[in-house]
Amino acid sequence: MALQPGSSLKEAFPVFAHHRELVFLDNAASCQKPVVVLEAMDKLYRTSYANVHRGVYQISEAATAQFEGARQDVARFINAASAEEVIFTRNATAALNVAAASLALGLKAGDEVLLTHLEHHANLVPWQEAAKRHQLVLKFIPVTEEGRLDLSSIDELINSRTKVLAITATSNVTGTVTELDKLIPKAKAVGATVVVDAAQAAQHLPLDVQALGCDLLAFSGHKVFGPSGIGVLWGRMELLSSLPPFEFGGNMIQEVSYESASFAPPPARFEAGTPPIAEAVGLGAAVKFIQQIGWGAICDYEEGLTRYALEKLVAVPGLRLIGPSTPEARAPVFSFVLEGVHPHDVASILDGVGVAVRAGHHCAMPLHKRFGLPATTRASFTIYNTEEDVNALVSGLAKARQMLAL
Ligand code: PMP
């Protein structure tokens, strides 16, 4: 059966057979897992599990082939020039920490790092720490009232002191898809290194690292229908080869004496210790699953769903949406407050009617402060969600207002 986005896709996800009434709208935090991912991991553990790379026996070689095969699947998923440019990490956060700490070693006091006000803590706090250690100056692209990047001062913000642009591709709060096509060439023109946080984008948009022209890009397995415990740091080989390792130990060395060590080329240099083996195999199956559905179908479907959800949500009395109210350059991630009802109470009432959403600051505290709010409720949709799921959300919101609004 051809896979296509929408309600029929729920059949590919065992959780929806287990919870028939579940309306799962927390996909920005983590996605459910299709059976192909579960089976790929199960099969590895049942038939050919062993530690990778150093075994000279058959099942270690089989495990290594599957692990390295997954690296190739991921390389194809993001159009990397080679599989060696794909580093497996623990999650996007770990990948972004490597990026900030390693790049900062090559920077000097007064150098500027340009971020945006949309950033998740994972692409903000590592730079704050790097700035403290290396006396860097953090600058920010502000956001408009609508939650889009305000590029009116971009030619001052990107200047000869800008050494790094570290930017989210899609906000996990507002759903904003940032203008990487405009910003990356500007940053490259002043010689800056560009880091893209694609943790949220990877589930909604095709990523082509060569077309983007960035230098490093990070995302997590669990947000692209793969397992948790694995993430990806992609880097241009020329840059990766010049970056020092971040963690040290087995698997990442070339030659070791009691006094010193030399290091393996990428990706091994950045993969100290036993890697997430079954998780890599699961991630490989997940990205192939996405490609089987096809980006054309995914983007068309999600655009329609975004349009429908926006129409319904903006019509809810007392609802303030934090983020663009038009579907262009926007992912189906909707953070909002409901007048007179605490965001956590909204989430609890929705849970009572079988709608799973998240409430809080979504690891973007400064962005919430920018909008004068301590917290929002967030409903985030993906390929298995439907217009009926939007309707369930909206009727749950009506119930919340009825029960709790002043
Ligand atoms: N960046 C963005 C935009 C995110 O949405 C997230 C996850 N919420 C992260 C980074 C961090 O991802 P992880 O928790 O998987 O490391």
Can you walk me through this structure?
There is one protein chain. By secondary structure, this protein is an alpha/beta fold. The chain has two domains: 7-30 and 294-403, Alpha-Beta Complex (Aspartate Aminotransferase, domain 1); 38-291, 3-Layer(aba) Sandwich (Aspartate Aminotransferase, domain 2). It has helices spanning 15-18, 35-47, 58-77, 92-104, 125-134, 154-157, 180-189, 209-212, 237-242, 277-293, 295-314, 343-352, 365-370, 387-404; strands at residues 23-24, 86-89, 112-116, 137-141, 162-168, 193-197, 216-220, 231-235, 253-256, 261-263, 319-322, 333-338, 355-356, 358-360, 376-380. The strands form four sheets. It has a seven-stranded mixed sheet with strand order 2-8-7-6-5-3-4, with helices on both faces. A four-stranded antiparallel sheet has the order 11-12-15-14, with helices on one face. α5 links the parallel β3 and β4. α3 crosses α10 and α11 (295-314) packs parallel to α14. The longest helix is centred in the N-terminal third of the chain and has 20 residues, at 58-77. The radius of gyration is 22 Å and the shape is globular. The model has no long low-confidence stretch (mean pLDDT 97). Residues 28, 91-93, 120, 122-123, 168, 172, 197, 199-200, 220, 363 line the site of 4'-deoxy-4'-aminopyridoxal-5'-phosphate.
